[in-house]
Amino acid sequence: MHYAYPPRKASHPPPYAPRSSRNIAGLRRNRTKLLAITGLFFIAVIWLLTRPSSSHAAPSPHKPSGNPPVVIVTAVDEATYDKDYLDTIKENRIKYAEKHGYKTFFPKVSDYDLKNAPKSWTKVVAMRHALTKFPDAYFFWYLDQNAFIMNPRLKIEDHITKNSRLEELMKKDHPVVPPDSIIKTFSHLKGQDVDFVLTQDSEGLSAGSFIVRNGEWARFFLETWFDPIYRSYNFQKAETHALEHIIQWHPTILARMAIIDQRLLNSYSQHNKGDEYRDGDLAVRFVDCLAAGVQACQTESQKFTQKWRTAFSSS
């Protein structure tokens, strides 16, 4: 006889292995897991007890000694300006620095690879370089090459950077980009909180003369400002518009910035864009003179050369 389907198997097939064998195998697996977990626990305890303390793993930031108290940084473009003009610029900074125990730093524009960005970006990388070169300085004052220090009697510490003085000078709840930017300087800022000091002109922030306090924040700020993405944005005013952008979008930078009156740090030789220089002001800049050609900058500077030399010789 033939069946259409094979006969059904028994509905209760015999177990694969005796129950006692399965229990023993399960106990062995559980014991192995327990031993592994216990071993990992003891390894973790030993690591926690023997690892280096946090003070060794992350050394505290370097605290500047104040030697020198201030470094004046001016990037010079030897390919554009003649030697006599740049020598006069350097002489001006050196005489002022010697009077107050400061140092000067004159890096060349050609020292840095800006990756085809405008030369004006040099100020940012030059300041970053200066922080490395003078790790014990308290403050760094960047002053463009188209400028003179005019009042040798004014010390940066007393004139601007002392905490109590900064609290008198800083503009609080003030539009970052005039006249009506919705982003404003903090109203509760104290002098001790300020690590970055600059001015405005009639068009916005003016980045040709500014002060940075040495420290970890300064390094973070300059790295942020010099980020390749901002150099690639092709801002109309290059690093100045990049600065306005990051200040308005990064509260960590806005929270450390103070805007002061222009004539305290950054007077202009002409009044068409900002506050014009007056006798007694700390410095004068020949703003945008290069747009009219190199000779225009040198001609503009001659109006002030004898005046600053006279002021220095009588101080």
From TrEMBL:
One term of GO molecular function: alpha-1,6-mannosyltransferase activity
Record keyword Glycosyltransferase present: yes
Keywords from the UniProt entry: Glycosyltransferase, Transferase
Pfam entry (one): Glyco_transf_34
Gene Ontology annotations of biological process type: protein N-linked glycosylation
InterPro entries: Glyco_trans_34, Nucleotide-diphossugar_trans
Sequence segments annotated as region (Disordered): 1-22
Cellular component, GO annotation: mannan polymerase complex
Family named by the database record: Belongs to the glycosyltransferase 34 family.
Protein name stated in the entry: Family 34 putative glycosyltransferase
Organism of derivation: Podospora fimiseda
